[in-house]
Design goal:
CATH architecture of the largest domain: 3-Layer(aba) Sandwich
CATH class of the largest domain: Alpha Beta
CATH topology of the largest domain: Rossmann fold
Largest sheet: 7 strands, parallel
Order of helices and strands: EHEHEHEHEHHEHEHEHEHEHEHEHEHHH
Shape: globular
Distance between the termini: 11 Å
Strand content: 15-25%
Number of strands: 13
CATH superfamily of the largest domain: Glycogen Phosphorylase B
Structural class: alpha/beta
Oligomer: single chain
Radius of gyration: 22 Å
Number of helices: 16
Helix content: 40-55%
Strand order of the largest sheet: 3-2-1-4-5-6-7
Length: 371
């Protein structure tokens, strides 16, 4: 049995944490002994406990990729638990500590997509960055093709990288009665389309372009509302934009939503307008699992999830006119919408089920150990 320790530095529950939680539900317990190291007091602890996971709390790693305290804390943990494989999620401290421990193979997952700066993608900076990453990882998982492209630009050996897209459990399909009740709660009337975005309220998530597209649809006389779920530092700017466009009656600010099942069931289209960072959006996958098509920007990992004309449409990032045109084409074409719904279910089953992701990660563990 292979002994594996996953290390995550997140104090909150983000995409990386959700991926670990999903993996823990599906991994082969007869072949792998899996433990999880989290920052002391992390919000992940409650979720991990619910799954019966073996949890180790560490000092000095909370929301820090690299710290001397974190390295020493993790080195002690590795020496005590003697893992065969150490899997680091956004934790350079874990990778350095693993090399100091010296008795485990190191797997590193790149969960994000963003264009690397010139400091680490050119000249000496690229050489140094490449050396550090290549020497502190035996295998690297990129959650999107775009993520692989990003890190290769910074000097990382492409032969070490395997693309494993995120996987999720399919959402529950709720009854028509439940849908009507939920729409009523959100004040969505009969005959109104409902668009939605589930993402943190951050500048690079592109909420402004969605709002501008919504305004154009409303000016066309299309009955449509937008549901925005999430919290973040850009909320005030979003509210200002809503006021500026005079579309407050057509925008629902839902705040943080613990369980998105209900929301995904009542949406007509799932939206993603990211232009600064986006890997494999879990919200897109969750919607896809119940046949919810998406209209997304051409940035980052989005084109790796949404195939234009198959399970959604892709528009040019930061281009509200193009987004508007794509949205309008679907909201005025029932047959096209129905075809995309069927495409969503097919693509999800083939590529994005939790079991597909879990099997791929387990194969990485076997491969790095040569078994």
């Amino acid at each position: 049995m292979l002994k594996v320790i996953n290390v995550i530095s997140d104090s909150n529950i983000g995409g990386a944490g959700k991926c670990i939680l999903t993996f823990l539900k599906y991994y082969d317990k007869s072949q792998f002994d899996v433990k999880v190291v989290v920052p002391r007091g992390s919000l992940l602890i409650k979720e991990l406990e619910a799954l019966g996971a073996y949890i180790i709390e560490a000092d000095g790693i909370a929301d820090k990729s690299l710290s001397a305290k974190g390295i020493m804390s993790l080195k002690k943990i590795f020496a005590e638990h003697k893992p065969d494989v150490i899997h680091a999620h956004a934790s350079m401290s874990a990778r350095f500590a693993a090399r100091l421990y010296g008795k485990a193979k190191i797997v590193f997952t790149r969960h994000s997509v963003f264009e690397p700066s010139k400091k680490i993608s050119q000249g000496l900076g690229k050489a140094i960055n490449g050396f550090v990453n290549n020497s502190t990882a035996d295998k690297i998982i990129a959650v999107a093709d775009a993520a692989k492209e990003n890190i290769v630009k910074t000097g990382v050996n492409p032969d070490k990288i395997t693309v494993i897209k995120n996987g999720v459990e399919p959402l529950k399909v709720i009854s028509d009665e439940e849908k009507l009740k939920l729409k009523s709660n959100y004040n969505v009337g009969e005959g109104e389309y409902l668009l939605g975005i589930v993402a943190r309220l951050n500048y690079v998530k592109g909420h402004v372009y969605i709002l501008e597209s919504l305004k154009k649809l409303l000016d066309d006389g299309i009955k449509v509302k937008l549901l925005i779920a999430g919290t973040g530092d850009y909320e005030e700017e979003i509210r200002k934009k809503i006021s500026e466009l005079d579309i407050a009656e057509n925008v629902i600010m839902a705040g943080f939503v613990t369980d998105v099942t209900g929301i995904m069931n009542i949406l007509d289209l799932n939206l993603n307008a990211s232009f600064g960072t986006e890997a494999t959006s879990l919200s897109l996958l969750e919607g896809m699992s119940i046949g919810l098509p998406a209209v997304v920007s051409d940035f980052g990992g989005n084109p790796g999830v949404i195939e234009h004309g198959v399970n959604g449409l892709i528009f040019k990032k930061c281009d509200s006119d193009d987004m508007y045109n794509k949205l309008r084409s679907l909201l005025t074409d029932t047959a096209a919408m129905d075809n995309l719904k069927k495409g969503c279910l097919k693509v999800f089953e083939q590529q994005f089920r939790a079991e597909v992701m879990t099997d791929a990660i387990q194969n990485i563990y076997r491969d790095v150990m040569g078994v």
